Amino acid sequence: MLVEVTEGDTSAIGADLVAVAAGARASQLGAPERAVADADPVAIVYTDGAPLAVVAPEPDVEGLRTGAARAVRACRGGGTVAWALDASVPLPVEEQVRALAEGAVIGGYDARRWRSGEQPRGVERFVICGCGEQLAPVADRAALVARWTNAARELVDGPPNVISPAGLAERAAAFPGLRAETIDPAEAGLGALAAVGASSPARPLLLVLRHEAPGAPDAPRLAFVGKAVTFDTGGYFLKSQADIVRQKADMAGGAAVVAALGAIAELALPLSVTAVVPACENMLSGSAIRPTDVIRTAAGLTVEVTNPDAEGRLILADALWWARRDGATHLVDLATLTGAMRAGMGDVYAGVFAPDESWRDVVVDAGNASGDLAWPWPLHPRYRRLIDSTVADLRNTAGKSFGFAIIAATFLQQFAGEGPWAHVDMLGTAFVDEDRGDAFGRGATGYGVRMLVELAARLTWAAARPSCSPISAITNVLVPKTTGASHGETPSSPKLAPATTLSKLNGTRRPKIAHG
């Protein structure tokens, strides 16, 4: 979809549909009072010219984003939609343009590409009328990020027999401006990824994408790690029928990080950014990991498998270690990790964990500013004792009926090394079962793409202007006390976080909530 801005009126565009927010501007364009009142969420007014879509958005950024998406979906025959800006909307024009451009592209996404026959015609052109050409770069950037958000949605919505580990890697390797590499986990000593992936005839792999910008500073070196279990049966802890049908979306973290790299490359941000994606299936087979198996991770730590359906944290452990070994100074991982996050936060917010609250707040702020809503969650040393094992260094679940999301983050912390790291548990937000009333509708949302692009942009800005950064938290974490290993250097294995002196809790009852 082409997004344009113009100072002209909607009548000069030759639009197939004119759209406007319910209010004074709608009345000026000929919408009767009843249509303005009945716009819940859209009322169509048929005129001598193009039909007029009167949209009733909330008077904020999210409302305009949603309104533009609804207007695009209302233009059923495709073609051109012209949006008339309304001066009475209590937002700066720049923010309106950004929200409208993003919402239009997101609203133009169609998940029906797997149907046979000719694809339905979509909206090809969205014109924002009533603003100066100087805002064209704002619209262009918003549309760019939205297109890459849709690229992630397409990967997540794709069937698992097509978006397999190899299928995901093949598509990501075709993204322009990036250097791609696939690594065999068995040959690379990534024991946890190899063990989980051995359950399936689809071979596991570690996908690495690099954005190597000319003139990028030596630090920070940012790495995004994304869980990509392209289908998760739960293994020997087989998922229920109601849950297993959603499991093609268990690679949404991986989809988000590769799409974010695509956007960052197209934006040509002068920052070193790497995407590290452990990709596999978690199947039920004779070669699947069993309860009580002990796995040696790439970091050298051994893990007792107490729940084969908590495989996501196992493959992320190897990927986090690999990213830090590769020289990352700042890490963020995204994963559809625990059903507890969805139970606690629903499908609106993801949870963010980090031992460094400054870095956690930077990630949360980037998410909320971009529209990928995020909320800070706690990490505390006392949770560490819950993953002690009697036969190995760690176990992958606590076997308790509480704290699932925090315990999963605590497990990952053992492999994140030294330096800023944050974990984003996005299970509820990555794939929604019903329309939330926003721009996305049902299905994949591409959660995380906008967050990560915004984070990279803020780090780029702060690295170039460290003495005048308005975001003090970024300044605090740009130069961490300890950095990752230099590129290609193999660091020592991460040290286990010390357990507390409190006596161990008893109990072996397995929780009934989904893990990742």
What's the gist of this structure?
This protein is an alpha/beta fold. It has helices spanning 24-28, 33-38, 61-74, 93-107, 136-157, 165-173, 185-188, 191-197, 241-244, 252-267, 312-325, 339-345, 357-370, 404-413, 427-430, 449-464, 472-478, and strands spanning 2-6, 17-21, 42-45, 52-55, 79-84, 123-129, 179-183, 205-211, 221-226, 228-232, 272-282, 294-296, 302-304, 330-335, 350-353, 374-376, 394-395, 421-425, 431-432, 443-444.
What brief labels describe this structure?
alpha/beta, about 525 residues, disordered C terminus, single chain, Aminopeptidase, Leucine Aminopeptidase, subunit E, domain 1, nine-stranded mixed β-sheet
Structural commentary:
The protein starts with a strand and ends in a 38-residue tail after the last helix. The protein is elongated, with a radius of gyration of 24 Å. The longest helix has 22 residues, at 136-157. It has helices at residues 24-28, 33-38, 61-74, 93-107, 136-157, 165-173, 185-188, 191-197, 241-244, 252-267, 312-325, 339-345, 357-370, 404-413, 427-430, 449-464, 472-478, and strands at 2-6, 17-21, 42-45, 52-55, 79-84, 123-129, 179-183, 205-211, 221-226, 228-232, 272-282, 294-296, 302-304, 330-335, 350-353, 374-376, 394-395, 421-425, 431-432, 443-444. 55% of the residues are buried. The protein is built from 17 helices and 20 strands. Residues 481-515 have low confidence and may be disordered. It is an alpha/beta fold and 516 residues long. The strands form 4 sheets. Strands 7, 8, 9, 10, 11, 14, 15, 16 and 18 form a 9-stranded mixed beta sheet that branches. A 6-stranded mixed beta sheet has the order 1-6-5-2-4-3. The chain has 2 domains: 2-114 and 124-143, Leucine Aminopeptidase, subunit E, domain 1 (3-Layer(aba) Sandwich), CATH 3.40.220; 163-478, Aminopeptidase (3-Layer(aba) Sandwich).
